[in-house]
Fold this protein.
Amino acid sequence: MTSKTKRAILILIFSEFLVCLGIGLVIPVMPFLKNELHFSAIDMGIMTSLFALAQFIASPLVGRLSDKLGRKSILITGLFLYMFSELLFAWTDSLTLFNVSRIIGGLAAAMSIPTTMALAADITTEKQRAKVIGWISAAFSGALILGPGLGGLLASFHYKSPFWFAGVLGFLSAVAVIVFLPNENELTKNYEATSPGSKSKQPQQKKNIGLFTQTVVMLFVLILISSFGLQGFESIYSIYVNEVFNFSISNIALVLTLNGIISLVLQVIFFERLVNWFQEALLIRYCFFFSILGTAWIVLAHSKIEVVVATLIIFSSFDLLRPAITTLLTKINPHNQGLINGINMSLTSIGNIIGPIISGGLLDLNYHYPYIVVIIFLTLSLLLAFTLKSNSFKFTQKKP
């Protein structure tokens, strides 16, 4: 890996960290914003859904655009849009403009997050990719751990302070990418020069690799179905453990903090090793199996300690599952990383839109119904995962 490639990866990790830190900053402020401006729960729900809806619509389009126009310009535009959305949210008290801000924020997320993953895939070898994607995922997790605490501190000055600060982080991230991220052509040349046989193999691959192969379609179906289960679990977790097991805010904060620490260790230190030991397909199956086991344990649990242990198992499985699927996708077709990562995010966004609504409605009927449905979705995902093979990315490559 050349020095320019290393610098590019560091900048991508840094920008991902700043953007996700900004997202985490506003989490503790949203309930206060609802009460301060007298919004209804439906108003807040629509505000959240608009972000995911914009992300869902824009992700595959932006992904294809980045394949044609280049990653850096799309990434910079997305970061500036993110800055604008946060500053608009900080400036206004209008529900309409709040909604506009969330739509712009969803578009910004569609332009920045999958583009970061696509660029990382463009400039790394298959052997390096698991480590780099693990680092980027760790930056995401670490920022979401630090964000709420910092947001609560900033909100002590004014409830709009976290949004102003998030806008500044977006600006700094955009400037860092403009100034320090090397030119894409240079990175591609460096990658080709350090990849043995790439010059002779790449044209043949580009000719023979189809985008929507059976493996790609199966992974997309897996992402879609699993996203309902993942979001169905995560979206109501705090409410569920509070009302069923009497978890206090401090209890929930402790669990999420422990999970964050474990997530960082898994993604930074162990993810690459796990991929090398098991390969992505087998790791995906293990993640689904343990997430099913943990969810069932929570439904049957009788004590807080059981819930804590089961929760850490589930979230750890989720934290490994997402980068494992992403890594496998990046290996399938090296020439359409933007589109592939865009569709990945778009399908995940469907879960972000519909999963919480389904779980919330089921929770009103019975506390255990949402997690029983989650188990069904995760079990279906596990069965689909058995159609994948550890070297399935090679199936899309035809010998010359």
